[in-house]
Amino acid sequence: MGGRTLHVGIDISSAVDARPTGIARYIHSLVSHLEQLESPPQLSLYCRASRFHRFDPGALFGGRTLRPLPLWLRGVDLFHATDVRLPLLARTPSVVTIHDLSMFERDDHATPRFLRKKRASVERAVRRATTLITQSQSVRDAIVARFSIPDTSVAVIPLASGLPLKSDRPIVDVAGAVRRLLIVGGPSVRKGEARLSPLLSYWDREFDWQPDLDWVGSGSAVDQQRLLESVPSAARHRIHFHGHVDEARLDRLYRECDGFLQISDTEGFAMPLLEAAERGCPILSIDSPVLRETSGGFALFFGDNVPASRESFESFLAADHRRGLRESARQHAAAFTWHRTAERTARVYTDAAARAR
Fold first, then answer.
1. Which residues, listed in sequence order, are joined to residue 9 by a DSSP beta bridge?
2. 203 and 314, same domain (yes or no)
3. Does 200 share its domain with 290?
4. What is the DSSP string of 257-269?
């Protein structure tokens, strides 16, 4: 740009929500840390009209000026679609974040109409974007294979923990029995809730283990009731739904639990794994390439064939094994920072703008 500050438009529509999702936390953290860079780009924040009038977007973004996203966007050097969807752009170069490809890989977690729309959005983004961003090597490999595009057109930029770490607070004590497990992400078919019943039944039968489950995340009463009806009746009173909680409460829940349970494999990164690891919380996770990548492998993994994962469960219940995993996982999580994410994203902006000239 000849030394001129790059003017970047960013779609923050998916962050305009009173109860932020993982994608919303990504957008909030990215915008904040881009602005803190030594040589930050000039940012203009846009929100789709359908969401612009539902909340007060300016309040959600610290009073920053937000603009309704027009169908035909002009006046910026580059546009970043943070959740796949691109406006009509004339000749403006674009960067598109694709978080995962679950809409192609599974069809049991959403309506056919929703899946068709998501697939079409991803396909358009792949055709039109100057550069794609994703958050794990596993998802990049899947994008490259599915769409037969050069791997150089997809940048891998890992995220970081979405929950500020208070260093003066104690980490999780792993010396005792595992009595409470934490799950983050509202109950839904997409988030792997069908895995819970086989797990609870097997743990009870084989290990006489009946942990309480603290479940954090937005979910309707219908979602909660569906989940409770799917698990053994003897386990229902041990499932505690907390709904959406603020950062201070979530931090306490991580520190008060004895372990973190990840049952969803439809993830592009899974920030809660880093949040748990930072706080010394041992992780028991469904196995997937993305989750192994995010956790650095410093977790115990199980598959959908629950009995075949017996060794992982035995290790998780052994305090010495959990203690060893905890220290390795904390060191791994410390390497992820939002400053680094912002720096790498800014470099992608500069490269994409230069490529489009």
1. 44, 79
2. yes
3. yes
4. SSEEEE-----SS
Residue 110's pLDDT is: 77
Q: Where do we find the tokens 């977007």?
A: 57
Q: Compute the chain's Rg from CA coordinates.
A: 21
Q: How many domains does the chain have?
A: 2
Same domain, 212 and 153: no
Same domain, 243 and 99: no
Residues 27 and 102 in one domain: yes
317 and 200 fall within a common domain: yes
Q: Could you read off the pLDDT of 262-315 as tens digits, one per residue?
A: 999 989 999 999 999 999 999 999 999 999 999 999 999 999 999 999 999 999
> Which residue type does 251 have?
D
Residue labelled with tokens 């479940």: 215
To 10 degrees, what angle do helices 22-35 and 338-356 make? 80
Bridge partners (DSSP) of residue 79 are 9, 94
Q: State CA 90 to chain mean position distance.
A: 31
Q: Which CATH number do you get for residue 68?
A: 3.40.50.2000
Range of the structural domain that residue 312 is part of: 180-333
150 and 229 inside one domain? no
**Predicted confidence (pLDDT) per residue in 191-223, tens digit:** 888 999 999 999 999 999 999 999 999 888 898
In this structure, are 87 and 126 located in the same domain?
Answer: yes
Instruction: Tell me which residue of 74, 71, 96 sits closest to 85, measured CA to CA.
Output: 96
Is 2 a residue whose pLDDT tops 60?
A: no
Q: Mapping DSSP to helix (H, G, I), strand (E, B) and coil, where does residue 77 land?
A: coil
Place of tokens 């086989």: 198
Q: 328 in a domain, yes or no?
A: yes
Query: Of 12-21, 86-95, 250-259, which one has max mean pLDDT?
Result: 250-259
From residue 7, how far is each of 28, 39, 45 by CA, in Å?
18, 12, 11
Higher pLDDT, 15 or 171: 15
Q: Which residues contact residue 269 at a Cβ distance below 8 angstroms, ignoring those fewer than 6 apart?
A: 22, 99, 135, 136, 158, 159, 290, 294
